[in-house]
Amino acid sequence: MCGIVGYVGGRDAVALILDGLRRLEYRGYDSAGVAVVSGGSLQRRRAAGKLERLAASLADEPLDGDWGIGHTRWATHGQPTEENAHPHQDCTGRIVVVHNGIIENHLELKARLAAAGHRFVTQTDTEVLAHLIESEYEGSLEQAAARALPMVRGVYALVLLHRDEPQTLVAARMGPPLVVGLSDGERFVASDVPALLHHTRDFLFLEDGDVATVRPDRVEVRTLAGATVTRSPQHVAWDAVQAEKGGYRHFMLKEIHEQPRSVRDTLAGRFSLEDGEVLLEELGPAAAGLLEASRIVLLACGTSWHAALVGKFLIEELAGLPAEVDYGSEFRYRTPLVGPGTVVVAISQSGETADTLAAFREAKSRGALPVAICNVRGSMLTREAEGSLLTHAGPEIGVASTKAFTAQLVALALLALHLGRLRGRLSPEKCRAHLSELTRIPHLMEQALHREDAIESLAGSLTRATDYLYLGRGVNYPIALEGALKLKEISYAHAEGYPAGEMKHGPIALVDDTLPVVALCPDGGVYEKMLSNVQEVKARGGRVIAVASSEGGELGALLQGSDDMILTVPSCAELWSPFLTVLPLQMLAYHVALRAGRDVDQPRNLAKSVTVE
Length: 613
Ligand code: M6R
Description:
This protein is α/β, with parallel strands linked by helices and 613 residues long. It folds into 3 domains: 3-242, Glutamine Phosphoribosylpyrophosphate, subunit 1, domain 1 (4-Layer Sandwich); 243-446, Glucose-6-phosphate isomerase like protein, domain 1 (Rossmann fold), CATH 3.40.50; 450-595, Rossmann fold (3-Layer(aba) Sandwich), CATH 3.40.50.10490. 35% of the residues lie in helices and 24% in strands. Strand 18 (295-300), helix 9 and strand 19 (323-327) form a beta-alpha-beta unit. Helix 9 runs parallel beside helix 13 (403-422) and helix 14 runs parallel beside helix 19 (578-595).
């Protein structure tokens, strides 16, 4: 939920830490702070609001330091004020800490520490860490951390420094991710790889229970019990340019336009057209388990949950295997009926969503075969899965997920086709036909993305709309949900996604001439049914924005009102139509939000990775 950066070396720590935080701002952006040390003096600066407020304050009154830590926050405990911004310090002002996560027993620890004389000045859970470490400190920060952290309940990624232990950071992880970047004569710590790609592509990925002592020339990793562990450096393929805006006004817009490439990359090397087969050796030991699967349970949150709904459709259609979809956040608060014979597929862009991970662990503990679809190699999810299918979307920075979604659809399509072949439901010829349609998709997506101008002007005509209804059927019902989610999260307009057939059971009461109804009507088996729903909206004076394969036909005849509009997408096999129908909805959300003057990449109250429950 928050972004952490630490630096040890000889360079300007403030500039390096601010640069890293800027690249992590998608993780949280309600307040920020840094603490740096120079010549034995520890200085701290914090500011409420976005990072630019902190940067402005540092530009007015610079701080000097050649090592230090920084943080960009998404508040959980305590308002996003300057006082509650990290880094937090102990009573002596010598120990400072930045933290991502939640300390569940902070009240109990606080009471104990306060009774022992510690003075608390914030409403955060994190402050207890600074005082707890202080109470355990006997000359070694690493040992103090190792003694203190077993007393902590909850989840954390944290970095500590002590003013009197020069060029030394202590980093610890239990839950949220933490990586150490390795460079010549200097070391970095960060919540995520993109923060450091300008400095290095060599990383150590810390694991739960690790306590790392990071110095400019070495990193020592031990368990909380003090045993030395080896974390081998890994070279990451992502490069720094992928994490830049590349001339686009926003990351979201860039990521929308990257989708043909990311779909192509996620497909590449994973099938043989000649043999009509999908090749998923990367699933490793999980591959064999797929053969015995009697059902699939898909777990995810948010946009990834919408991908899961499409996945259910594909798996049932192509593999004839029952598939269920669950919210990560709901799964473990009932008695989930999963066990041997169930393949549980968790879908997550980040691989660190707390709810998805918790549900995944629950399913695993009940004997299900755990498989991950994930965009981040080495993330918690991929490490806990028996087999992973990586999406190759590249770093997704915009809080509103776009390219990760369509890449997830590719992974699900491949999985469904693979299961279909394994179970004999699809012949090689049928599988080949589906695959060759699928390989056309990136090109068709490029064509669909060329129609942005029409969407931009449509957004201009929607400035007064405050509520929207999105309707879809079959494989496009999840796309209605996704279109509505995109719009609400970045424009703050109220939007509801609904299965079109359910409209008459309630939501139709909302229809009047102020409510734009976005109807997904691509060519396919449910086109006629969608036409009926569009007719029902028109009969009640509603305004329709249709996404369709052509402007003509019955739909064209129906939508001749000056306020109505048809956004066309190229025609393709109905099963793969979500790849195309979602594109105008992403662009619509983007342009409506832009018109409304919203902060597209960093919408209010949200963070990219939700690492708390
Ligand atoms: O990283 P994940 O895919 O697990 O994230 C799940 C959701 O938090 C995420 O999709 C969220 O709904 C996005 N902001 C939607 O655009």
